[in-house]
Every structure is written in structure tokens, then in C-alpha cells.
Here is the input.
Amino acid sequence: MLCLSAAAVYDQRVTSGTLIRQARTRAGLSQVQLAERSRKDRAQIARWERDAVTPSLETLRELLHVCGFDLDLSLVPYRGPDAQLEARLQKSLERTPQERLQTMLRARRR
Amino acid sequence: MAGEFDPYALLHTLERQRVTYVVIGGLGRVLHGSGEITDGLDIVPSTREENLRRLGLALDELNARRRDGKAPVLERDLAGSGVLELETEAGELKIVPQPAGTQGYDDLRRRAERPPIGQGLRPAVASVDDHARMLAALDREQDRQPLEVLQRLIEIEHEIGHVIEL
Here is the structure.
């Protein structure tokens, strides 16, 4: 069974709705098919995917299991905004000025 | 309308015309490691007559235009607004003869560094302390975060006891 990493989930601010939609589309399922296989209401799945409502962790796992995925959840130390800035600056300072400029230009093009 | 931002093209043109200037603003901060994204080049030129003549030639070469679409007249435009915002074929170019909190080119060039940035270019870039001084003097809400980043860069520089590579 494939895993969706919790670290990736929080780094990218992924919601439960994003996870369900991502798992379903990666499994090649429609909302109707996911509803049938999980024995949930299709409209409810649509609401979960829109993040109009949030499923319980157990329900989220059930839905992901149906799609062939699991959640890889674990506790990690919280890195607040200061730590994030620190990590970004450390990474930037490891580069030469030329690399910093080229990194910025690449980011602009994206 | 300004062309795609190409700092190398802008700097090559300034160097070709032997303009003396110091890079400030977003690009200067990027070279110091701020990690931000910027859309233009800000420079502080020497305001000596000969240098302004050379800068004028560089602006002609870059097909620089003011926001109103007219070609700049350096001495008049710099005397009027204090900051001359131009659109060029290589992106936006801002000419700031006397940035907030400084005395202009002669003040900034003393601490400026010349980092190699590729394509044989080593432009004079205002020091990280001077960048912080300019942002602090502007005292604008939009500069709060870049100023925090610069202050942290200065702290790191002091903590690790060496000058950040430039």
C-alpha cells in the first residue's frame, strides 16, 4: 500500500479534501466509484473534497485505503515561522551570490 | 511596457557605458541571500556630470521610457521626483540618486561589495547593513518582512563571525 507522508502534508498545507481528491484521481476513480466502493454518499465525498466539511481521521483513512493509499502520520517538532525563516536563510547562504541570483530568476519563471 | 526582467542585460549595458553605480533594493538583497523574488533593478548612480551622461547613453541603449512613455531627461527627472522609475527592454530600472537614510552614491560605495554574479559581471552592491538602513528609513509596512530578513542576515553574520560570502 502506498503512503501519503504526513510531513509532506503539513509542509504543503494540504487539506483532507486535497488528500482525498489526490488519492481518488491517482487511483483513477470517479467520485461515484469512490462512493460505491467506500459505501459513502457521493455528495458527501464532494463536500469532503471541497473542504466544505472535514471527515474524521478514521473516515479519511478509510477513503484513502479504498484508493490504495494510507496516511503516514507521526509527531514531529513544530517548526514555527522563525525556524522556517532560519532554514530558508541557511539554505540561501550556502549558495554563492551568482547561485542566489539564478535561483531567483528560475523562481520568477515558474 | 517593460521587457522580461534580465538583470544581466541591464548590468552589461551599464558596464559597457562605464556607468558608476551601486545596486540596492530587491536585487541587492537577493545577492545578500534574502531569498526573495524581485522584478527590477534599483541603482544609485554617481551624480557627477560625466557619469550622468554615460547613464543617459545606457538608458538610450536600453530604450528606457518613463511611466508616461516619454524618454527620460536625467538631470531634470532626477531633480524633480528623486526617484526615476523606468521601463526598459530588459525590465524595470529604478534610479535612486539618494535613497532614504543615505547620502547617495559616495555614502554607499564605501561599504559596497563586488560579488561575482556570472557572465563576467561584478557589480557594486550596497552592504547588507546599508540595505537595512535604507529599509528602516523608509519605514513602510511593506518593507517590514524584508527588513526582518536583513536584520537576521546581519545577526547570522555576527554569530558566525565572518562576512557572508559576496
